[in-house]
Amino acid sequence: MGTNIGWHWIDPLAAIVVGVMILKTGWKVGRPSIDGLMDGFDKEKMEEIKLRVLMMDGIDQVKELRARYHGPHVFIEMTIGVNACQWKKATI
Pick from 62, 91, 88: which is nearest to 77 by CA? Predict the structure, then answer.
């Protein structure tokens, strides 16, 4: 179309713009699916879980935290740190 009026560069430019739009849409649609398949989890929700766990009595630190979706459920695996002296006092 652009070559009819002497702009030989407009058709390749339009093809590049359309290609970028297709790639952007594919990324936007495909990214959540890929994250779900690769057991991805939202970092903001991970931080919220970590903060809630740290508010519990006796838990000093969260060393490792992993979470994933399984259908409508969330599975969480974590390693926590507790003060051993505090627990010994509680059991004596």
Answer: 62
In b/e form, how buried is each residue of 59-82, taking b as 16+ CB within 10 angstroms? eeebeebebeeeeeeeeeeeeeee
Long-range CB pairs of 14-20 (<8 Å, 24+ gap) are none
Beta-carbon contacts of residue 88 (< 8 Å; ≥ 6 apart): none
Global confidence as pTM: 0.57
**Rounded CA gap, 47 and 67, in Å?**
11
State the Cα–Cα distance between residues 58 and 54, nearest whole angstrom.
9
Cβ atoms within 10 Å of 49's Cβ, excluding its own: 17
pLDDT tens, position by position, 63-78:
999 988 887 888 999 9
Helix intervals (H) in the chain: 10-37, 43-54, 84-91
